[in-house]
What does this fold into?
Amino acid sequence: MSAAAAARRILTRLHEVMASRLHAQGKLDQVVDIIADSLDSEVCSIYLLREGMLELFATHGLNAEAVHVTRMAIGEGLVGTIAENVETLNLAEAKAHPDFQYRPETGEEKFHSFAGVPIVYRERAVGVLCVQHVDPRRYEDIEIEALQTTAMVLSELISNNELIDEEEARGLTPADTGPATISGLPLVKGLASGVAVYHQPRITIDQVMADDIEAERQRVYRAFDRMRDQIDSLADRAEFGVGGEHEEVLETYKMFAYDEGWSRRINEAIDAGLTAEAAIERVQQRTRMRMREIDDPLLQDRMHDLEDLANRLLRIVSGQIGTAASQGLRGDAILIARNLGPAELLEYDRRRLKGVILEEGSLTAHVVIVARAMGVPVLGRVRGLRGMVQEGDLVLLDADNGNAVARPAQQVVEAFQTRFAKSRERQALYAELRDVEPFTRCGTRIEVMINAGLRDDISALPLVGADGIGLFRTEFQFLVSATLPQRERQFRLYRDVLDAAGDRPVIFRTVDIGGDKALPYLRESEFENDENPAMGWRALRLALEREGLLKVQARALLEAAAGRALYVMFPMVSEPWEFDAARAVFDSQLAHLRRKKKLLPEAIRYGAMLEVPALAEVLDQLLPRIAFLSVGTNDLTQFLFAADRANPKLAERYDWLSPAILRFLRRISLATAGSGVDLGVCGEMGGRRLEALALLGLGFRRLSITPVAVGPIKELVRQVDLRELEKAMQAWLSAPPPDMRAAITAWASERGIETD
It folds into this structure.
């Protein structure tokens, strides 16, 4: 008899039991009789987790008096070992195993052979199904597989009948169900509360036994076809280039995706009477058990690859291939994820997404920039996050202080609500500054503008009273699009942005894609092979090589700005000739529109971003060519320190207030003084009060920041006497103190200037 036939025989009889009107204990009693009879075994027993102990719930062959009496801890005896390791044991002589423990009340002294499999629920063993025989023998593979399949059905039976505690089933101890404090790196400051929602929700298998085996088989066939198409597409993408370890990884994936043995085992599980989801999970459990037996790291990696594919297949067959965004948020939510891309974040309902907690993340990652623009607090670099927060937990996020509380006590909730209310009051005070011009105490007008990238961002302009948009990231439209945005789509976006901005200026940065902002429809080997993508074939470098892309954008911008002023800024300029080349593309499109008798912008002002340190050495050549210069402190910092901003190990290593950065920025300020070129900062540095204070002391008079920071920065500006601040900054840079941040903070505190 095959393993599938043996399992099917058992499942057929179990189905009758599960459909009966017996109470749960009666069903278990019949189950052990059925398994013992089907496998011709003298003993069959079921142990279930109760109050942290494995309790004998039902038995055929052992003393009936031992039921609900015999109990073992996780890790104790053979049954406890199976549960602890979530592994199968198959022993010809049970007493020879080092973990064997004899329980006299069971009357099991006459039995020699022993086989047991874990009953798994939500990836944790919540019980053990075992068989015993008088004769010393190892159970055959088909018998073990029949037991494993039966254990899956038992998992459904015991969970549906509430025979196990839900918290124990989730692997939660009393400490896990109580309040938990989570610490991390504040990426976007703010307070938020909501229920925990995982970006990639756990797939729950609701039905184990199949109603129609052939229909389940066809579901799996279709899922395999779709999964293989995905893997083939992944392997064929030019982004991976030629040669290297990635090719081996993809070839391994393809090997597993087309492995007939894997698909055959899933089909055998379906033949036994399981649904497609249960069959995949059944084989996946077997894979996990095998992984625990492998000592070779290389082979373990390969088994992990297979499990990754099984997860992909399970998502496809269950129809749960999307993220929590596609399913929709039902209320105020704190999103939990390992990491996120900017496009993924933008898929969520802004009204209900209150905060984000990441296992990874860094201060200048693109998703953080988008979150800051959305006004969504983000906490990153949280180790062991999945083990601390469960789906549906209430979470209080305090990204101001770098922590969060899951499952908070009521008094903590009340204290948080009080603090949140005070924060709202402070925001209301900032709102009162909406129509107040930001003059310093000494009478200097500071321009406070916002960074934007989406059509909806423009609504923040009148709400916060910003002077304009100092950085409109045009690449956001490219990042959230499945295909390259055509000229008409770009034109409509730029026109809508200018219309919404009214008489306020909008500085459009030409598209900054490639390298660290890879697009699936523009990936090519010449820039995808970069070991350091942020320093590779991206931004203006890519745009100049792909002249058609820049031409389309230039035409769209020029047409959208017809009859009004157009501000264009080129990113990642390293040398003046790059600016000249980009300007020439716009000039050619301008000439084309003029020949077509099209309405033109009334004025065009060109500028550059200073992100590459080399540009600072040739500012004397560049300044006569430009109307404005914006320092991009995010990229500039990573280039100055040779520190990848996406590397989590370097997320906190380099300070924006280090003497190296401040001296560099001072050089730029001095170089532009008297040139007539408008100098500003459009990086995240300008939106932090203490850092903004330093920038004002260095001579910067235009700050382009996230909308939520406009009020706090306006308030800061009105408290500052620039003459006094500049004098202090000059002294600090001449002889840097041991801690520049502490020195500036102390100076501000002495003058009653809040820097938090």
In short: The first helix runs from residue 3 to 19. The radius of gyration is 32 Å.
